[in-house]
Amino acid sequence: GENVEQHPSTLSVQEGDSAVIKCTYSDSASNYFPWYKQELGKGPQLIIDIRSNVGEKKDQRIAVTLNKTAKHFSLHITETQPEDSAVYFCAATPWTGFQKLVFGTGTRLLVSP
Amino acid sequence: DADVTQTPRNRITKTGKRIMLECSQTKGHDRMYWYRQDPGLGLRLIYYSFDVKDINKGEISDGYSVSRQAQAKFSLSLESAIPNQTALYFCATSDPGLDTQYFGPGTRLTVL
C-alpha cells in the first residue's frame, strides 16, 4: 500500500519569508495529492491539490509542485503571515473513483512576526 | 451552522467502557469517513461508508465499529475502550467523483 513521508516535522520562519514542506510517496499508482491545513482546535481543511498530469499549481501565495519520476511533491508558501501558522498535512491516493487518502505525518509551521 | 458536526467534542472514559462518537453532516454528501489522529502519525482511516448500505474497513479498524444510521449520520463505537485508543478522532464527508473531503472539528478522547 501507499506510504507517505513528510518533512520537516516543524518549521519556524519569520513573517515574509517563504516556507517549503516536502513529501514523498511510494505507490507509483498514486495520482492525486491534496494538502490540508489544520488550525488549532479545528479539523483539517483542503488548501490546494494537484493531479499527476500537472507539474505545478498555484493559488495566490501557495503553490504545489509534483515530480512523478522522483515520487515527491512539495508545498510552497510565499510571503508568510502569522495566520499561516498551523499544521499542514500532505496526502496521496490512487484515483480509482474513491479517495482513500494516505496522509503524511504533518508539519507544524510557526510564522513569527 | 457547521456543515460537519461531531459530538462530544471532548470525552474522558475508563478502560473497558463502551463509547460512541457521533457525526452529523448537512452537506448532503453520500460518503463519510472516520479518521484517528495521533501526534507524529498523521491521520489514519478507521472506517468509510459510500452510502447507508455500504460500509468498509480502513487501515486501523480493529477495536472499532461503525453505524450509518442515515445519509447524514455516521457513528463510531469503541466496544471496550483501551488506553491506546486515546486520540483525536475526525469525521469527514465527500461527494462521489469530487475531490475535497470536509472534516468535522474533531473529538478528543481520553481513555484512562
Average per-residue pLDDT of chain A, rounded, comes to 93
Number of strands of chain A: 11
Helix/strand order of chain A, N-terminal first: EEEEEEEEEEE
How much helicity do the residues of chain B have? under 10%
Compute the number of helices of chain A.
0
Q: Key terms for this structure?
A:
heterodimer; A: 113 residues; mainly beta; six-stranded mixed β-sheet; five-stranded antiparallel β-sheet; 0% helix; globular; B: 112 residues; seven-stranded mixed β-sheet; four-stranded antiparallel β-sheet
How would you describe this structure to a colleague?
The complex is a heterodimer of chains A (113) and B (112). By secondary structure, chain A is an all-beta fold. Chain A has no helices and eleven strands. In chain A, 0% of the residues lie in helices and 54% in strands. In chain A, a hairpin with a 6-residue loop joins β4 and β5. The termini of chain A are far apart. The model of chain A has no long low-confidence stretch (mean pLDDT 93). The mean pLDDT of chain B is 93. In chain B, the strands form two sheets. In chain B, strands 2, 4, 5, 6, 9, 10 and 11 form a seven-stranded mixed sheet that branches. A four-stranded antiparallel sheet of chain B has the order 1-3-8-7, with no helix packed on it. By secondary structure, chain B is mainly β. Chain B is 0% helix and 58% strand. The chains are: A mainly beta (113), B mainly beta (112). Chains A and B meet through β4 and β5 of A and β5 and β9 of B.
